[in-house]
Specification:
The complex is a heterodimer.
Chain A (H helix, E strand, L loop, with lengths): L14 H8 L3 E6 L5 E2 L14 E6 L3 E9 L13 E8 L4 E5 L13 E8 L5 E7 L1
Antiparallel strand pairs in A: 1-2, 1-3, 4-5, 4-7, 5-6, 7-8
Chain B lengths: L6 E8 L13 H16 L8 E4 L9 H9 L5 E4 L6 H14 L5 E8 L14 H4 L9 H5 L9 H14 L4 H15 L14 H5 L3 E3 L2 E2 L9 E9 H5 L6 E10 L15 H12 L8 E3 L5 H10 L8 H7 L15 H5 L6 H14 L12 E8 L4 E8 L2
Classes of the chains: A mainly beta, B alpha/beta.
C-alpha cells in the first residue's frame, strides 16, 4: 500500500496561494465587490459569489481557534507525526484554516493564543503553512 | 403546503450488531432485499406493496443506485432517491419518504441501510483511498485533498476532538459528566439484545481510564464499528391502518448543512442540528417539554452534548449540568438513546443512525420489552453527518 505523504497538487485556482508559500508569503483572495476575505482559494466569492477576486498579501498571523493532540495517527501516513498537533487558525483577516502547530508536547497551549506562520518547505513544489505560538 | 403528519413508520428490521461477522456474506444488494423482506413482514405488508424506495450508496455500483436496487428487488417504484448525508442519511431518508407519501407519489416506501461485510472479491482492484482518508476526498480539486489531508486533518476523531476542545475553552467541560453520559447509555444497551454491548454496562472510571485517542476524547466516548444493517417501512395513513403495529407518525422534520470540514464552520460549538430541530418542532407543533424520549445521534459524547443544547433541551453551556442532574438511561427521568445509542449498540457503518430512528419507532409501538418507557407518545430523533456538518431532526408521535 502507498503510504507516501499525501501532499497537495495545486490547481489553476489555487496555484498563486502555493506559489506564495514557496516564496514565504501568505496570499489570500479578497472580493473586489463585497470586500470579503476568502479561504481556501476559489473561483467565486464565498459571500456574494462574485468572480471579481484579487490576491492580496497578508501577514499570515492569527490566533488559535482550537486544536487537538492525536494519540493515534489520523491515517497510516502520519504515524511518524504522532502526537499530531492539529489546529484551526483564525487569521487576522477573519478567515480560518487548518494547520499543525509546531510545539513541544510539554508546551502549555491555550486556545486564543497568538500564532505566527512557519513555512515548511517539503520539496521544490510543496511548502506547507504550519504555525508556532508567538 | 404544510405537512399533515399522515405518513408513519409501520415496521422495521434491525440486524443484531456484532463485532466479527461470521454469517453468510451477501452483497449489499442482497442485504437490501433481505432487509426489505424482513421489515415488510414486520409491518404486515408484502413485496408487491412497495412503490417507493430511498437508499444510500451500495458497494456494487457508484451510480444508478436506485434503479439497480429496483431491478434486483424486481419491484417497480414511483419514487426513488439516493441520499448522501453521511450519518444524517437515515433521518434524511425517512423524512423524504414521508414527504413523497404526503405528496401522493407512493404509499409504501422502504428505506434500507445494509451494514454487513460483502463476499471477498477474488479479483480485488487497487486499494480504495477511502480506506485511509475515509470521508475526506483525495480527488484533484477537492478542498480536502489540498487544504486538510496534507495537514493530517482527516477522519472523524480529530474533528470531533477539536469541537470538544473549543467547547471547553468557551464553556464548562466536565469529563466526568461525559463519562456519565456513556454510563447511562450503556445501562440501556445492557438491556438491548441487538447491542454489541448487551449485558455489558460500564462505570465512570472505566470511561475515564479508557485510552486517550485525541484530546479530550477517550476510547469509550467513541463508537465501535460493528456489522449490522437496518431498514424501516414508511407508509401512508390508509396503509398504516392495516399494519400490525401502532404507527409512529412522522409529524415534523428539519435539515441543515453548513460545511464539509469543520474548519469552515462559522461557530464550531453551535451545530446545524439547532436550525434543523427548530424547524422540526415548529412543523410538528410540539414543545420540548412534551418529548418523552430523545434518540440523539451519538458518534461521540460531544455530539450528544451539543445536540441537547442546540435542539433546545437545555441552554447553551448548560449541557454538562443537564447530564449531571438527569438519569438519561431507559429507566431515567430523561431517556436519551433508550436502546443504548450507537455508543452502546456499536455503529454499523452508514446504518448507524437508523438505530436511533428504529428505537424511536420501537418505543412508540411499545415493543422495547425490558427497556419500554412507561409512556412514549412523542420522540425526538436526530441525525448527524460528517463532523457536525450536516444534521437532521425528526419528531415521531403515536396516536
Amino acid at each position: 500500500m502507498d503510504l507516501t505523504k499525501p501532499y497537495p497538487t495545486p490547481t489553476p485556482e489555487t496555484e498563486p496561494f502555493w506559489q506564495g508559500l514557496r516564496n514565504e508569503r501568505v496570499l489570500l483572495q479578497k472580493c473586489d465587490d463585497c470586500g470579503t476575505w476568502i479561504f481556501y482559494p476559489r473561483s467565486n466569492c464565498s459571500n456574494c459569489l462574485s468572480t471579481n477576486l484579487s490576491w492580496r498579501e497578508v501577514s499570515g498571523e492569527g490566533t488559535l481557534y482550537t486544536f487537538t493532540v492525536t494519540r493515534q495517527a489520523t491515517a497510516p501516513h502520519f504515524v511518524d507525526e504522532v502526537p499530531q498537533l492539529i489546529a484551526m487558525i483564525d487569521l487576522d483577516e477573519g478567515v480560518r484554516l487548518t494547520s499543525t502547530l509546531i510545539a513541544d508536547e510539554t508546551t502549555q497551549i491555550s486556545i486564543g493564543a497568538k500564532v505566527i506562520p512557519e513555512f515548511d518547505h517539503i520539496n521544490e513544489e510543496v511548502t506547507l503553512l504550519r504555525y508556532r505560538l508567538a | 403546503m404544510k405537512l399533515e403528519g399522515r405518513a408513519a413508520i409501520v415496521g422495521y428490521q434491525e440486524y443484531p450488531h456484532i463485532r466479527k461477522f461470521s454469517g453468510k456474506r451477501k452483497f449489499t444488494l442482497g442485504q437490501w432485499a433481505d432487509l426489505t423482506r424482513l421489515s415488510l413482514e414486520d409491518a404486515g405488508l408484502e413485496a408487491r406493496d412497495v412503490n417507493g424506495l430511498v437508499c444510500t450508496e451500495i458497494r456494487e455500483t457508484v451510480s444508478f443506485t436506485p434503479a439497480t436496487i429496483v431491478e434486483y428487488l424486481g419491484q417497480p417504484v414511483n419514487f426513488a432517491e439516493r441520499v448522501d448525508l453521511g450519518g444524517a442519511s437515515p433521518v434524511g431518508m425517512v423524512w423524504r419518504a414521508a414527504a413523497a407519501i404526503e405528496l401522493g407519489l407512493a404509499d409504501v416506501v422502504v428505506c434500507a441501510l445494509p451494514g454487513q461485510p460483502i463476499p471477498s472479491n477474488p479479483n480485488p482492484g487497487p486499494v480504495d483511498p477511502r480506506r485511509f482518508f475515509q470521508s475526506s476526498s483525495v480527488n484533484w480539486g477537492s478542498p480536502q485533498a489540498e487544504f486538510e489531508i496534507p495537514y493530517g486533518n482527516l477522519a472523524q476523531n480529530c474533528g470531533y476532538a477539536m469541537i470538544a476542545q473549543r467547547y471547553a475553552a468557551e464553556y464548562d467541560y466536565d469529563p466526568t459528566a461525559m463519562a456519565k453520559l456513556v454510563v447511562d447509555q450503556r445501562r440501556s444497551s445492557a438491556m438491548n439484545p441487538n447491542a454489541v454491548f448487551y449485558e455489558k454496562p460500564v462505570t465512570v472510571d472505566d470511561v475515564l481510564n479508557s485510552r486517550l485517542i485525541a484530546d479530550p476524547l477517550r476510547m469509550l466516548e467513541i463508537v465501535m464499528p460493528v456489522a449490522g444493517g437496518a431498514a424501516v417501512i414508511v407508509a401512508s395513513e390508509d396503509v398504516a391502518k392495516r399494519c400490525k403495529h401502532r404507527p409512529a407518525w412522522i409529524k415534523g422534520f428539519g435539515e441543515h448543512l453548513t460545511m464539509k470540514t469543520p474548519t469552515f464552520a462559522e461557530d464550531l460549538v453551535h451545530s446545524p442540528v439547532g436550525p434543523a430541530s427548530a424547524k422540526a418542532f415548529e412543523m410538528a407543533g410540539v414543545e420540548r417539554g412534551e418529548i418523552d424520549a430523545c434518540q440523539i445521534y451519538d458518534c461521540y459524547t460531544i455530539t450528544v452534548l451539543l445536540t441537547l443544547e442546540d435542539a433546545g433541551f437545555c441552554g447553551k453551556g448548560e449541557g454538562m449540568e443537564f447530564i449531571r442532574t438527569h438519569d438519561l438511561s431507559c429507566f431515567g427521568d430523561f431517556p436519551v438513546n433508550s436502546g443504548g445509542g450507537q455508543l452502546g449498540m456499536g455503529q454499523a457503518a452508514g446504518s448507524g443512525g437508523m438505530t436511533q430512528v428504529i428505537e424511536g419507532a420501537r418505543q412508540i409501538m411499545g415493543r422495547a420489552e425490558k427497556r419500554q418507557l412507561s409512556r412514549c407518545d412523542s420522540v425526538y430523533v436526530s441525525g448527524t453527518g460528517g463532523i457536525m456538518s450536516e444534521q437532521a431532526a425528526l419528531i415521531l408521535q403515536g396516536d
